[in-house]
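Q: Given only this backbone (364 positions), what sequence would you predict?
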């Protein structure tokens, strides 16, 4: 699968452009703030129905305009193609279409166009809160497991309703608590099992990639932790209601799950240098790519590499490039401010490619 063509209109700082891509390597170069990441974000948007940069859709519409539009033409890799489009007008609900037929639920689209993005914001996986690490698991698993996404949506709805009951001034009905807690318990068990399986199968791929990209002398690890390991969630929720009524929210559940990230047995957030952190994160994302390819029955995701060279020495960059130039990887998009870096990438990869220069949102 690969993206053949991308049309953008009023997407962030890009007024209008129509781009045709290589099925293998696509490089975007230009100074910071010119719009390189915005092009990658548009590709991300077409896969996930949302931006990787802005949680609020209205913020992606170019300043002083009323609407934006994205359209992508994909070769699906099985002698079929797909046209995915999105339009959004200020103050209105966005419309997402496949082959001009509108989706009734955005969740029905997730997984059609698998994608992995490596960006500077990945540092939040190490330095940020547990919500960032849960999001990492959810984004991967939701792309190949529709039931997982459904369980996640239903769990979060039930969690929201239970929190409303906890905040209520009046004493809520016991039956209402039991109803939402039963939903949470059922969904949490399914979510936990899938997260556990994902991390268990990701770890060996991740460790192998880090040894090839980072250092064979360092040991990296991932350990999944969850309240579900302590016993049935329904029992925990019922026993903690009195305390949770005081604080006003639910203290236990898979919405508190986390991943412990380690370097040589210690938390990497305390031990890792900038280069080690980035090698760790890139290895993690490339392991995600290989896992997702297998989970999607061999359909290779699109790989977005934003600002690849930052904080990495030339040896690590070359190691990364040799990994992604292999047959296990498909279409790749790479951004960098330095054209000489892009040329060195192409020398290493030696693959079919296209180069785009971006200045003030104009792409050529």
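A: Predicted residues:
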């Amino acid at each position: 699968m690969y993206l053949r063509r991308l049309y953008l209109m009023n997407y962030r700082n890009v007024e209008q452009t129509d781009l045709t891509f290589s099925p293998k390597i696509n490089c975007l170069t230009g100074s910071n703030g010119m719009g390189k990441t915005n092009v990658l974000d548009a590709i991300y948007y077409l896969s996930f129905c949302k931006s990787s940069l802005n949680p609020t859709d209205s913020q992606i519409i170019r300043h002083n305009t009323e609407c934006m539009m994205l359209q992508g033409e994909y070769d699906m890799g099985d002698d079929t193609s797909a046209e995915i489009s999105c339009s959004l007008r200020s103050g209105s609900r966005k419309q997402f279409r496949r082959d001009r037929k509108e989706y009734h639920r955005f969740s029905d689209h997730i997984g059609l166009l698998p994608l992995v993005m490596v960006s500077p914001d990945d540092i939040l996986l190490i330095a940020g809160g547990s919500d960032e690490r849960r999001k990492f698991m959810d984004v991967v698993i939701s792309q190949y497991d529709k039931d997982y996404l459904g369980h996640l949506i239903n769990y979060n709805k039930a969690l929201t309703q239970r929190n409303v009951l906890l905040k209520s001034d009046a004493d809520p009905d016991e039956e209402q608590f039991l109803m939402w807690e039963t939903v949470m318990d059922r969904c949490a068990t399914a979510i936990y099992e899938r997260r556990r399986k994902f991390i268990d199968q990701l770890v060996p791929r991740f460790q192998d990639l880090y040894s090839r990209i980072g250092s064979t002398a360092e040991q990296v690890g991932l350990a999944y932790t969850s309240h579900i390991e302590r016993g049935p969630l329904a029992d925990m929720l019922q026993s903690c209601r009195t305390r949770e009524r005081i604080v006003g929210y639910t203290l236990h559940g898979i919405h508190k799950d986390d991943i412990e990230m380690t370097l040589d047995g210690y938390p990497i957030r305390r031990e890792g240098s900038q280069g080690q952190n980035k090698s760790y994160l890139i290895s993690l994302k490339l392991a995600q790519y290989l896992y997702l390819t297998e989970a999607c029955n061999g359909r290779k995701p699109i790989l977005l590499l934003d600002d690849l060279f930052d904080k990495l020495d030339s040896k690590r960059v070359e190691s990364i490039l040799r990994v992604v130039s292999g047959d296990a990887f498909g279409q790749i998009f790479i951004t960098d401010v330095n054209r000489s870096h892009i040329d060195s990438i192409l020398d290493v990869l030696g693959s079919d490619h296209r180069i785009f220069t971006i200045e003030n949102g104009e792409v050529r």
